[in-house]
Amino acid sequence: MLLLMALFPAAHLLLHGTHISHVQSPKLHSCGLNSPCLRTYPPKHQEETAYKYQTQARIGRKAKSEVKMEKEEGDLVVDAEKLRFEFLQVLRGRRTAEVPLTVEPANPVKHPLFQEIPRPTFSEAMESCPKVEIKNFSSLLKEENLYLTTEAGEQGRLPVLILSMKGSEERRPAIVFLHSTHKNKEWLRPLLEAYASRGYVAIAIDSRYHGERASNLTTYRDALISSWKNSDTMPFIFDTVWDLIKLADYLTQREDIDPTRIGITGESLGGMHAWFGAAVDTRYSVVVPIIGVQGFRWAIDHDKWQARVDSIKPLFEEAQKDLGKTAIDKEVVEKVWNRIAPGLASCFDSPYTVPAVAPRPMLIVNGAEDPRCPHAGLEVPKSRAIKAYGEAHSLDKFKLVAEPGIGHRMTSFMVKEASDWFDKYLKQQAA
């Protein structure tokens, strides 16, 4: 059995090569207009934060991703360092006991669980991913199945599937792939094989309450409802983001992976995981969320929340009953987001977390007609991201593409755009 050293004892959380146990946490407010991760100028001056997140490869130096927007009167300014710190506090707030991060081998999953009927059988978009034709590909493909322990408890056992080509002794770029709602890591295999054929180490995980972390067709639905009623977990997005932090700890220790060239991408729910995972953890150096980035607050304010709510409707129906409402309305929606993912519709929403990715290369790919990720809701995140990347002299590293005429589905065009983006920014040698 592989055993990774205990990187995460409770009082010594190691993130990006920097211990933060000695840092006194700032007083936290509820996420909203008074949240300390948002600042409106004036005031004229704010003290530098004591915590500086750094990448594993640049310990002792300020990470390039730690970009702050310039102060302009009346502008809402995102302090990326502070946002990451506070996001981390939210993630830690509903954790079970922290335990050593261990790795154990697993067997391939022969019959992966899909929480949808009928079970999906084919993805034209994934099958279209550019792939190098290699003779005897199957015999040259290396497959690893393993479990990471990310915290105590059943859901703290993270199933991981890794594909790469045998024979290379050089450190290679890696990409983490994240599946959509009700699917699993095995569903992503066409993408994993395509990227492996092109020299990447391709990694997929089961998100919380999915795949090997689910026991039946309603596991994810039941977890969402339980979170609403008990406020004990965060199955919608945030708990899996915690797993992604722990996954980065493991990947940066592998001898076959270049720790400065780890990308992350995903579809729909997986796109949200990729977006938030990169926002909180700068070790994800290239980011491509597909049909995932949206404005949760914007949707509430502009009455465009229905399609997103419909994707996990039993949760909102339960909340409607508990709140004594005759129908699901925006008050129900806001209360649900605040309870199951604190800050999702306020201080951790896209206008703040998207700019926090700068200056790391970020490609956002959506459908122009996607009702779950309304394009109009991305105008503010886009403008703030452009400002942040501009201040970092990295405007070429941010791009938002909305494919005309496409709703909430991943297309071959999106897969190709993501492939080109990763080749451009991950295939280049580390500085």
Describe what you observe in this structure.
This protein is α/β, with parallel strands linked by helices and 431 residues long. It is built from 14 helices and 13 strands. The chain has helices at residues 80-93, 124-127, 137-140, 189-197, 219-230, 238-251, 269-280, 296-301, 306-311, 313-322, 330-340, 350-353, 379-391, 412-426; strands at 14-15, 18-19, 38-40, 76-78, 103-105, 141-149, 157-165, 172-178, 201-205, 257-267, 286-290, 362-367, 398-403. Helix 6 (238-251) packs across helix 7 (269-280) and helix 10 packs across helix 11 (330-340). The protein is globular, with a radius of gyration of 20 Å. The two termini are 34 Å apart.
Amount of helix: 25-40%
Taking all residues together, what is the mean pLDDT?
86
Q: Major β-sheet, in short? A: 9 strands, mixed
Structural class: alpha/beta
Low-confidence stretches: 1-30, 32-74
| Straight-line distance between termini | 34 Å
The order of strands across the largest sheet is 5-6-7-9-8-10-11-12-13
User: What general form does the structure show?
Assistant: globular
Q: What's the quaternary structure here?
A: single chain
Would you report the number of β strands? 13
* Strand proportion: 15-25%
> What would you report as the Rg, rounded to the nearest angstrom?
20 Å
Count of individual helical segments: 14
Protein name: AB hydrolase-1 domain-containing protein
Organism: Populus tomentosa (Chinese white poplar)
Domain AB hydrolase-1: 175-412
Pfam families: Abhydrolase_6 (PF12697)
